[in-house]
From TrEMBL:
Residue ranges annotated for the Methyltransferase domain, each copy included: 54-126
InterPro entries per UniProt: Lys/N-term_MeTrsfase_sf, Methyltransf_25, SAM-dependent_MTases_sf
Highest classification ranks of the organism: Eukaryota, Fungi, Dikarya, Basidiomycota, Agaricomycotina
Keywords: Methyltransferase, Transferase
GO biological process: methylation
Record GO terms (molecular function): methyltransferase activity
Keyword ATP-binding in annotation: no
Family per similarity comment: Belongs to the methyltransferase superfamily.
Entry annotated with the keyword Methyltransferase: yes
Protein name as catalogued: S-adenosyl-L-methionine-dependent methyltransferase
Amino acid sequence: MDNLPEKNEQYGTKDYWDQRYQAESDVRSFDWFKKYSDIADLLRELIPDKTSKVLMLGCGNSTLSEDMYDDGYKNIVNVDYSSVVIEQMQKRHGTDRPEMEWRVMDVRELEFADDHFDVAIDKGTMDAMMTAKGDVWVRFTEADPPEQVVSDCTKEVDEVIRVLRKSSGLFLYLTFGQPHFRRRFLARPETSLHIKELGEAFHYYLYIVRT
């Protein structure tokens, strides 16, 4: 792909994504790893009520939202800090999927009231914030990750828990990141955490946080 960053840590910057989405404006979509068809049965099990209010964190131009919408989940709010991709997605889906919302917003500072959503989904956004150094999919070699990574990931999870319904909220985080590194950002005294290992030859993980 022509628009790969020179340094891995660029994945965590707004400028990189604005430039990439602008350069790839003719590209239909890009999904980090699994598509909706790969996880649809699991999501239907976890989100049986298709009227649930869903927050898609760092939506990019992934097809996940549109595929969920077409499967009956009409109440989806998509946020991304790239105004470029939000404008592109509004134009792409405004007519065919009018009930979906698209908002320019940083997942570390969500502009929603408390107890606002039933479900929040992160598919690759937190991974992008973990690229201060090292590889996006594996743990850092240091005993502790860089302070900026800890701060960014903690802010996202804090904000997600804040905007989810108390006692019934669901946060789903899909990643190749293994539990020995990701768990520290997701485990909280006031929530429960369950981890599903998925895939066969190449494992990936679904972290299920309930408020």
